[in-house]
Each structure stands twice: as structure tokens, then as C-alpha cells.
Amino acid sequence: SFRFESHVHKKMKISENGVASIYISLAMQKEFSLSTEDASAAISHLDSIKGSLIWIAFIECADGSVRVRLRSRFITVNSLAEKYRGGGHACASGATVYSPEEMQELLNEADAVVKEYKENNRKDTLYLTEIPLKYGNYHMDINLPDKDWFNYPSFITLEQYINLLNRIENIIRL
Predict the structure, then answer these.
(1) Which residues 6+ apart lie within 8 Å of 58 measured at CB?
(2) Residue 80 forms beta bridges with which residues?
(3) Which residue has the higher pLDDT, 172 or 77?
(4) Residue-wise pLDDT tens digits, 116-157
(5) Is 152 exposed, middle or buried (0-12, 13-18, 19+ CB in 10 A)?
(6) I want to staple 17 with a disulfide (CB 3.0 to 4.6 A). Which of 95, 114, 129, 147 is the partner?
(7) Average per-residue pLDDT in the chain?
(8) What is the 3-state secondary structure (H, E, C) of the chain?
């Protein structure tokens, strides 16, 4: 529901390096009439937070465990999930933690992964969210070589940005 999504956005936290996270307690699940599966879907409400490269939902379970959902656009998170009794796909994984201390450890490790990623990949790159919309609200399909829409990273080099602008200019002139 929109009410729950709004609540998630109000309660989420963002770490120093860009990990968006939310803790969904049993009380919150009751307040919004959510099953554990519905609560797990909250991860999708964090996927478009500007500057967030990893997002994590912690869902409290009745048995005292905390179900963890980890997502990223392009940073591998399954190795992090494996450290916490989980696994999954490279950019979409799950895990389980059993204490607030473990939750904090996982968040700290995720934050360190993002920091390292930024240090090693930020040189001479622009994140697509930082690129000004030079041509207003034009909608067009641009074929990006050797990439499909799902796997294309949300950052590009300055050279790629200039090439993209040139391609847009050529399309607009048509």
C-alpha cells in the first residue's frame, strides 16, 4: 500500500557510503497487516533512493530471527549474504541474522563494500542520476553496445556520457 511505502521512506536509514536500510518489526507488520512475505517486499521501496548502491530490508520474524533481503544494481551482494547464513544471486540475495549486533555488523560490512566500490570505480565516472537532462523529457530507445537494459550499470565514464549526448543530438536532429 502507499501508506506502507510512505512509512518505509520515513523510517529508512542511509549509511555514510550509501546503504539504504529499513527494519520492519513485528509491530510494524501488524500495524500494516503484512505477512512476512509482504514485509519482505519492502525491499522494492528502497531501490530508487538517490545515492544508494545497496539496499537492505530487515524483517523481524515471530521465531526471533530476522530475515534479511539484500539488493544492488551492480555491486555483488551474495558473498555478503553467505556470511550470514544466506545466499542468492549476485545482486539479489537473502540471509538471516539473530541479533541487533549481527544486523549492525552486516550493515557495516555492506557500507564498507560500497565505500571500496566507490573508491575503485569513481575515478572519471558519472552516475546516471547525476547527469542533467539536457534535452528535456524526450523518450527514445538508445542501443547501448553489448549491454541490455537490465545489466547496464548506473554509472558511465565521461567519454561514454559525451558519446551518449552526441547520439541523442543525432536522434533529435532526425
Answers:
(1) 21, 22, 23, 24, 66, 67, 68, 97, 103
(2) none
(3) 77
(4) 888 777 554 444 444 443 344 443 334 444 443 334 445 555
(5) middle
(6) 114
(7) 79
(8) CHHHHHHHHHHCEECCCCEEEEEECHHHHHHCCCCHHHHHHHHHHHCCCCCCCEEEEEEECCCCCEEEEEEECCCCCHHHHHCCCCEEECCEEEEEECCHHHHHHHHHHHHHHHHHHHHHHCCCEEEHHHCCCCCCCCCCCCCCCCCCCCCCCCEEEHHHHHHHHHHHHHHHHC
Instruction: Extract the C-alpha cell encoding 34.
Output: 503484512
* Dist CA 141 CA 150 (whole Å): 14
Interstrand relation of 66-72 and 155-157 (parallel, antiparallel or unpaired): unpaired
Q: What's residue 155's pLDDT?
A: 53
What the block records as the C-alpha cell of 120 is 575503485
Residue bearing cell 538471516: 96
pLDDT band at 159 (very low <50, low <70, confident <90, very high): low
Contacts of 36 (CB under 8 A, 6+ apart): 29, 59, 61, 67
